[in-house]
Amino acid sequence: MTTSEITTDAGADLGAGDVRLEIPAHHRNLRMARLTAAACATDLGFTIDEIEELRLAVDEACAMLIEHAPDDARLTLTYRSDGSLLTVEGHCPSHAAHVVEPDPVAKVVLHTTVDAFEVISADDGATAFRMRKRGAVEPS
Amino acid sequence: MQPVEENDELLAVDLTLVDGDAIVVVTGELDPHTVPRFEEAIAEATTAADGRVVLDLAGVGFMDSSGLRVVLAAHEDLAGRGIQMVLRTPSDAIRRLLEITDLLDRLDVE
Lengths: 140, 110
Known about the structure:
heterodimer, A: 6 strands, B: 110 residues, 5 strands, 35% helix
């Protein structure tokens, strides 16, 4: 797991198969983030186990951002596909004075369930994450 | 015994006593939004139990680390009181979470 100070590209243009979800940054909306992750992974031909792992990872990462978000904040999630690779980026305003990190249990989960995960201090004072997971089978 | 909480769209928790065991049947998804209800149900089960506290998780389609933390805290609290806590019929997704976090062998799973 790494932290960096690059700018998230959550606002960049979307590809034809990419999905963006913007939701109030409340824990009650985690389910929407999970459902969207599962739908995108299904479209890429991920196995059931891979879908479950991605659902769990997206939930943990989003919960981390929401934990530090102001009450009226909105969480933006971008799901980008490239062959069998799915990249999920999350971006949310934060009132944390430092770079946030997942708690130890969530950190273990994230390390185990996705191929890469990083927390980003965005240059607009927000916190963001980026994760990548590649499915075992190339989509047809 | 009446249900601790009636169903809403995300989580239902039902508590019954069977031969002294407090059985908590959980249906839905366990995440930071729903976990407080799960925690309440375990607390009530702890008070009601003459025997074990059994968490029936067959109907739980998703659990993240927030749910796992509640399970772990309850396990340690109950062990300190000499009460056994059992996870009954966890789904494959929950078993996978327990494997990832190396807790499958630490908890009583049936």
